[in-house]
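Reviewer comment 2.1 asked that we show a complete input and output for one of the modelled complexes. We chose the zinc ion case, as it is the one discussed in the main text.
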Amino acid sequence: MKGSFPLTKEEIDKQIPEKVIGNYAYGHSKVNSEGREVFHVDYVGRADEEPLRERIKHGINEGYKEFKFSTATNVKDAFEKECQNWHDFGGPDGQLDNKIHPDKPNGTDYKCPICEKIEQQKRQLKLERPRFRR
Ligand SMILES: [Zn+2]
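Response of the prediction step:
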């Protein structure tokens, strides 16, 4: 992702091309234990029905301070990237304000690749578990 940039209308319009879709993160800069400034991600999202430029602006009124973004060439890529981001930052138990898993794009049956992998591992474990015999 590119950034971070201050979350203002002017900066959003300056950084993001018109009419593209993609992904974004809201967050804030903070100084870590080693004294270096790092970007702390507070929220991850995607824009597929609405242009990324417009979507990101919704965060201004919600009090977020900075954003990062990346553009996507199609809805599936944007969805999968959002899922990746959401899992990377800890999903429901992590640091994000979004507590609910990203929803699949309207009119599609795309599945989260990370959840799929977890399910697969669970199935595998079940197969390997020995059965009790009388
Ligand atoms: Zn998932």
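The mean pLDDT is 93. We note this here for comparison with the apo prediction described in Section 3.2.
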